[in-house]
Design a protein that fits this description.
Number of helices: 18
Distance between the termini: 27 Å
Shape: globular
Bound molecules: D-arabinaric acid, zinc ion
Radius of gyration: 22 Å
InterPro entries: Metal_Hydrolase (IPR032466)
Protein name: Glucuronate isomerase
Number of strands: 9
Order of helices and strands: HEHHHHHHHEHEEHHHEHEEHEHEHHH
CATH topology: TIM Barrel
Keywords: Isomerase
GO molecular function: isomerase activity
Length: about 425
């Protein structure tokens, strides 16, 4: 059906974006079969590391170690008191908790943590996964799977029950960022490596990667990289990328996902909350994607300053797919600015957002908040076309939104979307 008025257009776009099921291409969520790795519930929501950093700003007299020695419930109580009772929760991470509680139907006027806790105790993980994915309209989530994590490896070892809503991503940060300690972990897993990157060690790293690809069937191989990431580089990281990551991902036909721009542990006392951001050299991205045109790359960058040049680089390299507004960029003002710019430069050949959820319930807020902004930007873009005399069919808008919600990702991978089969 052709859309005749601007009002109709706006209503249809908002409705379509709000209801289109998404593929969430980067999360830290896990299927139920991974046991304790799947986090959910109010105490997990409140102790999200984004909220720990915010709480500490209001508690200058609380020693970090005292905070870490508290139980999870005590930490959650303190965070709730500090960020939700003593102040209004309008930061994006705080607002997220409010959205989640609201979407789960809680009475927010009571602000009664124990009532929320009682609810989470009364449901099973399985029921909760189903409820959240349905409410958030998320059909598939991509996990972050770490073969260097002992607990996680044990889950893979005992043969994990498949839930096709949860797809794997092989995350290899220790291999590229901490070789001086991770080489011995490879050795412990039975690979004949030495710290020195000789031919045999490089062959064994490739064998390690291929074994885990076989085991996990990951959609991509991923790493987060520091803001001073350089390429090419005569370094351990540069050598492993060229000699192992590039040939193995190409042979497996999977993208190499680079998440660039993190400064790890600028405040180690904050633990997971202690990482920061730095501007990176886009030249490194340009050089690696153009050197390997037969490899596929998924790239997101953490600094706001890198966003425009990253989108331009994607225009020049069709093997590069830009994704998401990552971590410190996952705020409404920045999502809007970045999404607008990307759609203007790249049309629909981009993945506007991923959630980075660490706690299942966060799917509700991360996607609600992002959908509202994506819809707003699309209304403007279609509105401009309307003013220029272009008339759209409902089916065309539906197609575009499906592409932005995961279609573009699956086409880039060259795999069918499992949720459609
Ligand atoms: O956004 C986050 O929660 C960060 O702590 C990181 O997990 C980051 O997204 C990453 O994947 O390294
Ligand atoms: Zn992440």
């Amino acid at each position: 059906m052709t859309i005749r008025t601007k009002e109709q257009l706006n209503d249809f776009v908002k409705e379509t974006v709000a209801h289109c099921p998404v593929t969430d291409i980067h999360t830290h969520l896990f299927a139920e079969s991974f046991g304790d790795l799947l986090l959910w519930g109010i105490d997990e929501l409140l102790t999200y590391h984004y909220l720990i950093a915010e709480t500490m700003r209001f508690r200058p007299d609380l020693p970090y170690e005292q905070f870490w020695s508290m139980t999870k419930q005590e930490q959650a109580d303190l965070i709730w008191q500090t960020l939700f009772i003593e102040h209004s929760p309008y930061s994006e991470a705080c607002r997220g908790v409010v959205t989640v509680l609201n979407r789960l139907g809680f009475d927010l006027s009571k602000r009664d943590l124990n009532e929320y806790r009682a609810y989470f105790r009364s449901v099973t993980a399985e029921e909760h996964i189903n409820r959240i994915m349905e409410l958030a309209k998320v059909k598939t989530v991509v996990m972050t799977n770490d073969p260097f994590d002992d607990y996680e490896r044990a889950q893979w070892d005992r043969g994990i029950r498949q839930d096709s809503r949860f797809q794997a991503a092989l995350r290899i940060d220790p291999l590229l960022n901490l070789w001086d300690t991770s080489w011995s972990k490879l050795k412990d897993q039975g690979y004949n490596v030495t710290e020195d990157l000789n031919e045999q060690t490089l062959a064994e790293i490739r064998r390690f990667l291929k074994d885990w690809i076989k085991r996990m069937d990951p959609l991509y191989m991923a790493v987060s990289l520091p803001s001073d990431f350089a390429y090419p580089e005569a370094s351990v990281r540069g050598t492993i990328i060229d000699e192992c990551i590039i040939p193995v991902t190409r042979e497996a036909g999977i993208p190499f996902a680079m998440m660039i721009g993190v400064k790890r542990k600028v405040n180690p006392a904050l633990r997971d909350a202690g990482d920061s951001v730095g501007k990176s050299d886009i030249g490194a991205v340009e050089r690696i994607v153009s050197r390997y045109p037969d490899n596929k790359f998924l790239v997101t960058m953490l600094s706001r300053e890198n966003q425009h040049e990253l989108a331009v680089t994607a225009r020049k390299n069709r093997n590069l797919l830009v994704f998401g507004c990552w971590w410190f960029l996952n705020n409404p003002s920045l999502i809007e600015e970045i999404t607008r710019m990307r759609l203007e430069l790249l049309g629909g050949s981009v993945i506007p957002q991923h959630s980075d959820c660490r706690i299942l319930d966060q799917l509700l807020y991360k996607w609600d908040h992002s959908r509202t902004i994506i819809a707003k930007v699309l209304c403007d873009k279609y509105g401009d076309l309307f003013d220029a005399g272009w008339r759209l069919e409902e089916d065309e808008i539906r197609r575009d939104v499906e592409d932005l919600s995961g279609g573009t990702f699956w086409k880039f991978l060259g795999r069918p979307d499992p949720a459609l089969s």
